[in-house]
Amino acid sequence: MMCKNDGYRIHRAGPREKIYFKPEDVKAAIITCGGLCPGLNDVIRQIVITLEIYGVKKIVGIPFGYRGFGNELAEIPLSRKVVQNVHLSGGSLLGVSRGGPNVSEIVDSMQERGINMLFVLGGNGTHAGANAIHNELIKRGLKVAVVGVPKTIDNDILLMDKTFGFDTAVEEAQRAINSAYIEAHSAYRGVGIVKLMGRSSGFIAMQAALASGQIDICLIPEVPFELHGPHGVLKHLKYLLETKGSAVICVAEGAGQNFLEKTNAKDASGNVVLGDIGVHIQQEIKKYFKEIGDPADVKYIDPTYMIRACRANASDGILCTVLGQNAVHGAFAGYSGITVGICNTHYVYLPIPQVISYPRTVDPNSRMWHRCLTSTGQPDFI
Amino acid sequence: MMCKNDGYRIHRAGPREKIYFKPEDVKAAIITCGGLCPGLNDVIRQIVITLEIYGVKKIVGIPFGYRGFGNELAEIPLSRKVVQNVHLSGGSLLGVSRGGPNVSEIVDSMQERGINMLFVLGGNGTHAGANAIHNELIKRGLKVAVVGVPKTIDNDILLMDKTFGFDTAVEEAQRAINSAYIEAHSAYRGVGIVKLMGRSSGFIAMQAALASGQIDICLIPEVPFELHGPHGVLKHLKYLLETKGSAVICVAEGAGQNFLEKTNAKDASGNVVLGDIGVHIQQEIKKYFKEIGDPADVKYIDPTYMIRACRANASDGILCTVLGQNAVHGAFAGYSGITVGICNTHYVYLPIPQVISYPRTVDPNSRMWHRCLTSTGQPDFI
Amino acid sequence: MMCKNDGYRIHRAGPREKIYFKPEDVKAAIITCGGLCPGLNDVIRQIVITLEIYGVKKIVGIPFGYRGFGNELAEIPLSRKVVQNVHLSGGSLLGVSRGGPNVSEIVDSMQERGINMLFVLGGNGTHAGANAIHNELIKRGLKVAVVGVPKTIDNDILLMDKTFGFDTAVEEAQRAINSAYIEAHSAYRGVGIVKLMGRSSGFIAMQAALASGQIDICLIPEVPFELHGPHGVLKHLKYLLETKGSAVICVAEGAGQNFLEKTNAKDASGNVVLGDIGVHIQQEIKKYFKEIGDPADVKYIDPTYMIRACRANASDGILCTVLGQNAVHGAFAGYSGITVGICNTHYVYLPIPQVISYPRTVDPNSRMWHRCLTSTGQPDFI
Amino acid sequence: MMCKNDGYRIHRAGPREKIYFKPEDVKAAIITCGGLCPGLNDVIRQIVITLEIYGVKKIVGIPFGYRGFGNELAEIPLSRKVVQNVHLSGGSLLGVSRGGPNVSEIVDSMQERGINMLFVLGGNGTHAGANAIHNELIKRGLKVAVVGVPKTIDNDILLMDKTFGFDTAVEEAQRAINSAYIEAHSAYRGVGIVKLMGRSSGFIAMQAALASGQIDICLIPEVPFELHGPHGVLKHLKYLLETKGSAVICVAEGAGQNFLEKTNAKDASGNVVLGDIGVHIQQEIKKYFKEIGDPADVKYIDPTYMIRACRANASDGILCTVLGQNAVHGAFAGYSGITVGICNTHYVYLPIPQVISYPRTVDPNSRMWHRCLTSTGQPDFI
């Protein structure tokens, strides 16, 4: 009998002595959900390679995430040959999308297709779905392993040191930041703004600012700030233009949502559609300096899609390799309803519910955020 | 006596036997105007190095273009040591800006500073200014050489094979196009849109599309198109999504201006502010596919500032080197009111008025545009 | 009847009104010979795509150059789907090699396979082979088109402005030169040496030196030099270390062969195996400065394989696209024994014998070489 | 009184409440010793910036490592302005070298110059020197802080999770590996060999192999292997060429030294000069396949200098920033004879003697090495 997950304990990841599936009986499926993230192809590749090492012959990709279970889209046959070089390109070989059929329909489709191992690459919503599928499978008494690999470029999964794609995102963000720096620095009273990913968590913005050494102001969702007012961002910007002649701002997409009109719109993944803080700040800056009679030359860069579509760098490549291997080891060990990760430098299996309750965030009292503040030299904006 | 330019003839560029300035009497100034363009630092660097080879000791940069003549901004002393590695970064060491004082004020400032060689890096408007300065200097009977180096990333200067920065722009555009391709390809009914530079001329869009091999639709200012209607872009897009599953569009910023509300706003350089065709197309596509009940997943990338801020690639590096050397040779030969360029594979001097009357454009009947159409497979959109 | 080539005339390349093959009767084969060169996959890709546009259904790749005709290696079926993204990787999809069976055996194999269009990507030796095949086919009265695409990273084909891969090579060489510059500059009495491609011609070394602005000494096959002696390279190097503290040398592989022991060894392509001038210079420099009691810190970089294996840059991508299209147009127009190229800015067809008699070389009296000397500041080394 | 280090304990790094130097009394010096490593400029930059934040005015760089103490080379004045963008280039702003005057002479020179804070960036030998300087200073009763920052691209420092430059090296190694893969894959019976850094430790080779997914055989100093014999590398290579058609080998420079003639030569840092295992393997492979009558096409790449001269990537940039800040905090806290590092995810101060006794190595029984073996699919070569 399968051991599934035991609800709360963390297990060290890796191969187990006993395996709960005969490789010749396995039909494994892989799906990628949500938005793009560097490393998706690396994880897919490694899952396929490791399955083949176990001796599995039937491996397929379900196209376009959960959606692929709901319609007539053909399965994508996978093998070492197919995936050999996919990690050299960004994107997802299988396609991604948000939304899809409901849990019961997905499980129906899995039964029809004879899938008894499902690897799910996605974020919080996707993992919630994976867990629901896992529970439905148990309810139906089916011996199927459902294993998640957390995919969030924002690096905001609870308990995990780092999620794949994050390191690449920070690296690629350097290019945008350096462009903004050069634009700002070469302009008369130049202000460069870079909007980076980070719906609830400012990890990318913080690390990218720290790595670049070129950011004067870093704004993240975890740290409230004022734009106007005596301690606001605009006042500090005025000071920077007077003393340094130019300034560069890096803002996480989820920062300063209080300045934007609330919408109740949600995307197909169920995420609230955020207002565009980058555009808002750009407009406020332009207006402010025009009003005080000394216009600034504002350049706004949104590199989001150029970062997401990158191939994984070497560091993420290794992380993806290990996560992919462990996902397969976990499934063969009979775990289900789990996800893989790196936790306090150790690779582990975690029950899905443990990691999806809320997003991990930057601690404003942490050393890392203070290092970031030291590096930017920015004051409190309250 | 200085020979200035002779009004219409093209001269082969290069060093002359006789020089019209004693190097020890020369005070040379360099200015960079308008927006950023890869290679500005390369040209500055080469002008400085070549001036030093001639024996010039007094070389300065005027900060922030013509604006630097109008206020108290300090001159930037230049020497081989200062410029040695500036070509390894993008931007302009001297700063750029639009606008500035009027011609008479500029010439006053030049006289005060004792400048008798002025190297002007800029676009059409900047060259018109340089020519006016040249004429005013003649009127005042001053022996000053004014030499332009055409800076237009759009590659739209009359008579010239290629302007510096263009090759780099096409190269860097590949990165954005490939991101758009990956986003579109990985999405369900994905459409990637890349807006590229090109106010009046579609050279960057055309060449970038041709080089990438990943563009399905290329839209440029020179070729009218319809969005709606039986032969419009949207219809073709629908066909592409049905047959290929995804599509990538590359649009020059000056294309399809007829779809946008005319504003009479002009920027500080006197250029009409264009409507944003990229955003417009994005919205029309979203609306169209929503209306026909089969939404598309549209991703829009505007890499403009990330392209402009790049350092020059090797090919542009060589072009900048030769242009910079020739600018100095021309000034020492006593030419004024000229600009340097490469014309039918030869490096030449041209009288400024010859090149600034209107922008060079893509010929819709040219082989290159037809090769582009072959590559994209797009029909006429009329 | 096929028109073949007319022995001496140059024809403008492009599609013709009449075509000499029914697309449905065509079986086209592509081979790549010799060493790697950026752009091979781009040309292959474009030939395949253009053949499909003409309506050809039977397209194959012969693996590993002429060798593939000689043994039991399977043909590689080619189609738009197969080649869609091959230009994003370097190398050759089909494999390359030197040598192979004799002309008669190749033509036998072509007859057996039913090939009536052969596209040959390779250098001088390969083109000589293509011409011999063409002649043998005529002798046998077979209606087969043999069309070459010159592949030489050295850019040393007679009459041609530029061959594909050259621009990329110059670009990639920057990386090695910059590394050598940093190593030399960061070391005490540091000397960086970069060996670049160029068996008979110094185009890559010259252009790479010019583009980088970081080279002090550029040595090419066309310009004789002495190492020792009062005007030798070593004396100048001593001067550079005393005045600048470091120096960077760029040497083409074919330079200074007079210093090396002659071998009569030839590689499988029939090229004489060159002595290693880079290693030789490195050793002579070390010895010289040790002997004068003031050792230099010498770092030697040979980036050859890292340059050859690159994917084509945008500029070469466009060149490859046009050459590939023209190769197919030429074959359909009934030409045979020709090769495609760009000649004085025009794309043309040339009879093979016209271009292979000897390699094109750098003219030591040309402006470009003099610009290079100005840039490096090096004296005559004789 | 200064607390120096307490001989064996590890302290958490960071600012302390009490500082043991008045900033206005401090004259701080920075030196960089040994070979280049990505991130040197980042650490220099951050030390300077942090010193300025403490209020230090006198900051200098000693040129070319310890050697700079021994002769008349001028100190390099450092300030935020000087170092602002140095992290954008590789190398060391201060120059590096091996060797130098003896400890007593160095301390004499420090006294003359009035240096009371010394930051030493270097490897094991350099740290041994720093410790000796620290002891000599104590013997002379001088209140001087000597703080090391471990610089070893090989990542082979005891107790430390990671040293700066390592991550960048693994990243850059990908480029060489991919070139070798493409060369091998495009050749008939192609073998690509990449030699990577790692005198005693195979971390770079192991991680680079794991990240690339393109390596078939990874050879490191920690794991003995045979070339010839029934289980040797050559036998496996033969198998790979027969089954896959090509193979890629990655070898650490310190691997297989038993195959090479022992020399007793040492470099100026006192390191034994290693034989060139890369060249040796290349020759043995060529010979072997020639002898068995089926030659292989072997391509050898040594990217060492191109990797060392890189600028730091984002991840190393952050590590360097934190190490640089902590080095200054440590000095101001009155520590001396210590070095900074990251140890079990925490930033710490360690007494120098604790970390230099021998190099950290790859554990052949570790999970990471086993993951590498899984990835390459290589057997034991004994």
UniProtKB/TrEMBL annotation, chains A, B, C, D:
Its Gene Ontology cellular component terms are: cytoplasm
Sorted alphabetically, the keyword list is:
Allosteric enzyme, ATP-binding, Glycolysis, Kinase, Magnesium, Metal-binding, Nucleotide-binding, Transferase
Q: One Pfam family for this entry, by name?
A: PFK
Which residue range or ranges hold the Phosphofructokinase domain? 28-329
What is any one GO biological process for this UniProt entry?
Answer: fructose 6-phosphate metabolic process
GO terms of molecular function: 6-phosphofructokinase activity; ATP binding; metal ion binding
- Give the catalysed reaction(s), semicolon-separated: beta-D-fructose 6-phosphate + ATP = beta-D-fructose 1,6-bisphosphate + ADP + H(+)
Keyword Kinase attributed? yes
Q: Identify which cofactors the protein needs according to its UniProt entry.
A: Mg(2+)
Role: Catalyzes the phosphorylation of D-fructose 6-phosphate to fructose 1,6-bisphosphate by ATP, the first committing step of glycolysis.
Q: Which NCBIfam families match?
A: PRK06830.1 (NF005301)
Name of protein: Phosphofructokinase domain-containing protein
